[in-house]
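Message: Just now I want nothing more than another pair of eyes on a protein record. I am handing you a single protein, as its sequence and its fold in token form. As I understand it, each token names a local backbone shape. Take your time, and here it is.
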Amino acid sequence: MKQTLFSLVLLLSVRSQAGILIQNSAVTDVTVYRSYAKETRLASGLLPAGNSEIIISNITAAMDENSIQVGCKNNVRILSVSSRLNYLTDPEGMPPVRLKVWQDSVKWLDRRARFIAKQKESYESEMNILNANNKLGSQQESLKPLLLKELLELNRIKQLEIRKLIFDADELYKELSAQISVLQKQIDESAQNRAGKPVRDIVLKVNALHEANTQFKISYLVTAAGWRPTYEIRCENTTQPLTLQCRARITQNTGFNWNNVNIKLSTANPNQNHNRPVLYPIFVDFMQPDYYKHKIESEKRDGYRAIMNDKAPAPAGTVQMMGGTSNLYQQADDEFKDGLKVEDKQVTILEGEMMIEYEIEQSQDIESDAQEHIVAVQEILIPATYNYHAVPKLDAGVFLLARITDWGKYNLLAGDATLFFDDMYVGRSYINPNVSADTLLISLGRDEKLNIKRVKINDLCVTKKFSNKKKETRAYETLIKNNKNTPVEIEILDQYPISKNNDIEVNLEEADGAKITKDYGKLLWRVKLLPGESKKIRMVYSVKYPEDKIVAERSN
């Protein structure tokens, strides 16, 4: 053991003599990309005249060594830059005090639990001896009643005493095991546990004209970090603009906390493939169809569609929209304010040709815990027009939509959104600016005071035959009712099928004044309702096809 410790000390001393070791460098600025982040740290040291080696230690192992950039002062020349993994972390790279306390507590509790287990074994051995010698009297002479009574009483007392000790040992062991389990879960949860994990060293070969105390500025990419946008959308009523609060969910798991650093968010993504696409020639030749291969590829596509459908954002939650502010959500103390609200000049937006950067003025602390840390970015007032929208074929609900025109100037990114209407939580939605439409639609949830129901009119659904043709008539009726105290206008979407076969003929026979888009089979009604008023709209279409065939409506 002594020889091992001596070898380790010798190794560390040789390592320190090989160059100037700098352990106290600090991260000062971080640019967080959608994936990855760029850390900038400052280090200083006293350099002798001539050539020397500088070792800047305690840097995350998640560093991309191909991205290292180094700057220096005092006319010091950088001769070469390299990096290496360091498995011999020094005390500066050991876990923080709180984690050390947890680990020491686990060790102490484990020793106590093992000692209790040994005590229990001793009590159980004593109980076995007592049970093995419970024969009273002998074959020649039995015990007198008084002596028998005393022995039985002594045996009972001793049995109870030992069993009480065993019971107490079991209870204490369970309690210690539970405490160990809780602490161990906390240790496993903490991403700060870097004991035994390697760190990176940046090794600089430098040349100084004279002895000088100089400063180095090092920047590099780290892979275990990134951010994603999230939004909070607030609407007071349908006469006011939308308030869009943009926030960033920052995560980092580099193994080192970012303490008091300047954060800059970038919309760039270094993780993407930035090589231009190259178009190669394709060739055509005769082929023999492979039924089984086609079937396998079809199943793969169906499975992919199922996965994508599972990832689709859920519709906004169901909450009744009302005029005025609910007492349930009214703040009793006017002094409370939104702590995440961004004031003027707190964030500087730098718009480049290929990316946008948000420079946050207030320094931040982002722990290395792989958890999301929400940081406010900006607040935007967006003019919007509002209307009610329903697709009763798919959902028996009427949704309030906000329509935003000229939305490209707001530099929005795709992300989830939390909806508030009249200071009440409505639900969650999704903002997708990656569309080519002129208007961006944001769903503000469903209004429970507007009822809509689509039913099939069985009396009109008939089937007739004409020579070798069959004609099916299908009819649907939609009932809309306004239970609000104000008049509303609702746009209602429905559809009829489109024929892709010349032998199938589809005719729209009744549409009750709907706007018809024949290429898509889309019907659009704009229905105005007074308070308490209800209306009905009807759609009837027929499908004619050969009687020996079967037709079905499908979406693709």
Summary: The mean pLDDT is 79. Residues 145-189 form the longest helix (45 residues). DSSP finds four helices and 27 strands in the chain.
